[in-house]
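Worked example (supplementary).
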Amino acid sequence: MSFNVQSFIEALRSAFKYAPVTLELTVITFLVSLVLGTVIATVRHYRIPVISQILGVFVTVYMGLPMMVALILYNLLFMTFYNDFATALNISTPISEINPIYIGFFALILGQSCSLSEAVRGAFRGIEKIQYEAGYSIGLSKIKTLYRIIFPQMVPILLPGMQNSLIGLLKASNLVSAIAVTEIMTGALLPSLLYYSYLESYVAAALVYWIIGIGIEVLAHFAEKRSGQYLRRINSD
Amino acid sequence: MIELTGVKKAFGKQEVLKDVSIKVNDGEVVVILGPSGSGKTTFLRCINFLERAEQGKMVFGDKILDLKHVKKRDILYVRRHSAFVFQNYGLFAHKTALQNVMEGLTQVQKMNKAEARKIAEDALSWVGLLDKKDFYPAQLSGGQQQRVGIARAVALKPDVILFDEPTSALDPELVGETLEVIKKVAKMGITMVVVTHEMSFAEDVADRVIFMDGGVVVEEGKPGEIFYKPKEERTRQFLSRIIPQDAYVI
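After joint prediction of all chains, the assembly is encoded as:
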């Protein structure tokens, strides 16, 4: 079996066509998880009673659940219970018309929020206590100190890890193909269903992932350079 | 006027403050002296609630507060009418000198940016650092950072400024420039409570000196009295160790 350029180009075209699905899964999941993860980390950092313990146990337990297991589990739960749920709430949309991507989002966001919350907790530890005290001493409230003083200083600490999780997420996003969502990899494989050109399809998929991955790295590098400005000692004069 | 009475505080089993009371009149400069571990820094931090006392009362302006059961609103009130100068400067690391001074003006006192910038620039030029206004703390020397810290405190026009060993973290050659600025603040007539080890500075600027040891006020009085005619044996001991010429005499 030789490498068929024609099939490769066709696979590449198909992969690109589904790239927005992957991007959507990656970017939206990342942004929502960043917010949720920050909330979880903040609650745990301030040791807010009860909620913080519950979240602590939840994160620990949930981090042990492989993404694939979570995805298929949620999908099965959804398929088993949707009809009862829909009748109870008078929802008339049949199950076949609901895009399985939402289940993908649900599973990815839960997992990602947990791991990002740990990263944010780590960043909290990188901020000196005196930064809080300085905020309080000039009369800022707790919340204002948090978002005016603490969060901005966490950004440069978080960025290298964020780049890592974003790329991890990009790769994890192809797991949602397991619940019948077509994304880059399954998109690239579509032509091979007709021509048996699997090698060409997988190379095409890899190429598209690479391009996006490199894009993320370039962006992260740029962001890192900008956000850490104040950490540099040497000045222009 | 600020008056604290019966302040008690313990860290675990370690009693740091055992019933401390002081009164600071408007415009007065009070210097608190004492060996390390005497509780003087903790006491200062209790005034603006960076540390919570377990017992005690505070009269702050026209407010009377129970230090233990104080409301959030009252804590903010005290913090918004006082300023704190930290031993380790405590500048916001991600903000330039100018932004450090502006932060409280725009975010707490709700000034518009132009007005806040004007005041912040004046404050920085007053401490001799206008040319460094766009520098980040990491680009400034310790003495310069501390002067920005003082500018930040003064710009807020607080009723009282609390200084927590403002020169203890500085290289010896940078202590002078910082003390000069603090003396300038004292001359403005702002009420000040200063925890320090700088004896000659205390003698120069203090209206009253309080000597603390072991979590209690041992003695207080005019600098001349405390330094040259201490009543308590403990004060005399401490001074003889700190003031160099005495050490040679013995």
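Two points are worth noting when inspecting this output. The interface with chain B takes residues 130-131, 133-141, 144, 148-149, 152-153, 229-235 of chain A (CB under 8 Å). DSSP finds eight helices and no strands in chain A.
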